[in-house]
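Quick illustration, no need to memorize.
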Amino acid sequence: MTAQHYIGAAMVLGIITAMGIYSGRRVKSASDFLSGGKKAGVGIVAGSILGTLVGGASTIGTAQLAFSYGFSAWWFTLGGGIGCLVLALFFSKPFHNSPASTLPQIFSREYGQNAGTAATLLTSLGSFLSIVSQILSGVALITAVSRLSPFLATLLIVVLMLVYVVFGGVWGAGYVGMAKTVLLYTAVGGCGLRAMALQGGVGAFRAALPAERYFSLFARGLAVDGGAGLSLVLGVLTTQAYIQALMSAKSLRISRIGALISAGLVPLVGIGGIFVGMYMRLNYPDIQSGTALPRFIMEHLPPVMGGAVLATLLVALVGTGAGISLGLSSMISNDIYKVYINKNADDNKNLWVNRMVIGGILALAAVFSGGNMGSLILGWSFLSMGLRGAVAFGPLCTALFLPGRIPGRYALLSMVVGPVLVLLGKLMLPAHIDPLFLGVLGNLAILGLGLYAGQIGKDKTHL
């Protein structure tokens, strides 16, 4: 990077950091921090969702996978958009009207405290892996364009994540998310158009690359890519960060519109990354795939603009990691700390605990991402979403739409069996079968037994 690159990057980072600190002035209580005091408008709701969902996996990770498989890489952002659409049409009303403030609280009210605690612990694993994938994206970005070591790159990313959200909570995620969305779509969309212009248009890509591999949504196989899309849909529906955004809205209408805007915008950002990945495959076939997007920016954009775009990508992955950390801290403070450690914690104490938990989560993720975790960023992102869906999707649907019909012990068992089957499937199933299908089927089968058992119990009571 030249001095001009750093000038462009500093401009973007300065704007984002100032907005993160400014948003902290809106926080007067734990309620403001976690749900915005239910005062958020459409921009904050959409900004919180987009700012968390569209990150390193949607940009750097998508270009990385497109380098090898073209449009198969679209499933992360396409599945995320479908998930936001389902969220808006079917889940926004029960979420917004729920007296609960976290996903585990919904389970505790319906199935008992043990189910809520299990949901906190098990969904946290998937969320944690998503934070790790953002750190891996950031390390790939920073080390590709600078002389910083992976350790220093990780440290920089964690510090930025703390600034992003620890001051402002939902307000920070929303305000910065809005700014980040404008910058990111301009940057990645511009890179995609630039790649198409350099290559000579879409027709030139189709002429140079085999269509069955690079222009198919199922290039890796129907089960693999279909499972990837399903994991995103279920992951969006069962991630605290997105639920929290809906709960922060002033009204149900605003909650729904914010989710619909997100549904329309999320898939678009993936297209730019796909064309960059395919361009780099054709013109720089020997590079490491994870550096495809950063290398394109360095090679083909003016320095000041390139620096600004690189900083925007950094902010994108920072925002996703920070937003998920916020959702995790909400669950841990409300469903672990206030239930088992300090039931009488006042508002100031709870706010302090939330901020400390965010710091601890990010520090642990930094340590974990330093190990030998493999290099496919989207692989970890798909797995994290799939684990969350396998834990919570079925029990969440029955809690919201079939209340009182499933005995708590069956819901608890389904939460445990689902992710266990996903992890076992990851180890034992052939590579062309996504283990998410096994986990979700096991989860739903146990809930089906619970529905039958609950009905039998009611029939006996009536007799």
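The radius of gyration is 22 Å.
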